[in-house]
Amino acid sequence: MVDVASYIKTLSPKGQRSSLKKFEKEILQMRDGGFSLQQIADFLEANGQKTTLGNLSKFIKKTTVAPMTGQKPAPKVTPATGPESSPPTLAEMKATSKDFDIDPTKFD
């Protein structure tokens, strides 16, 4: 019987690996930064990698899909800034409630 380690040494892995894989970080960084597919393709060409917009689009879609679920990851949420970003304090609610004649501490 041939052991698996010896057998694997006689084989070469099947399947294609995208030539864009070596630029994955840069591609995703540019896409997240709002650059167009054409601008990304121009960057790749300037680095010796020609590709079509269709191939670039497919590569981006494949690399941004969660591997186990097949679904895209949840969008990145950045915390809002400014006074409107946090919920009102109880004191602020009480001050506002005077205008509406309600007590915000007694909700049934």
Structure, explained:
- This protein is an all-alpha fold and 108 residues long.
- It has a domain at 19-72.
- It contains five helices and no strands.
- It has helices at 4-9, 24-32, 37-46, 53-63, 90-97.
- The longest helix is centred in the middle third of the chain and has 11 residues, at 53-63.
- It is elongated.
- The protein starts with a helix and ends in an 11-residue tail after the last helix.
- The mean pLDDT is 78.
Give me a quick take on this structure:
This protein has 108 residues and is mainly alpha-helical. The protein has helices at 4-9, 24-32, 37-46, 53-63, 90-97.
Measured between the Cα atoms of the first and last residue, the distance is 74 Å
Order of helices and strands: HHHHH
Q: What general form does the structure show?
A: elongated
What is the count of DSSP helices, taking H or I runs of 4+ residues?
5
Number of strands: 0
In the predicted model, the low-confidence regions spanning at least 5 consecutive residues are none
| Percent range of helical residues | 40-55%
Structural class by SSE content: mainly alpha
- Major sheet description: none
Average pLDDT: 78
Give the radius of gyration.
26 Å
Approximately what portion of the residues adopt beta-strand conformation?
under 5%
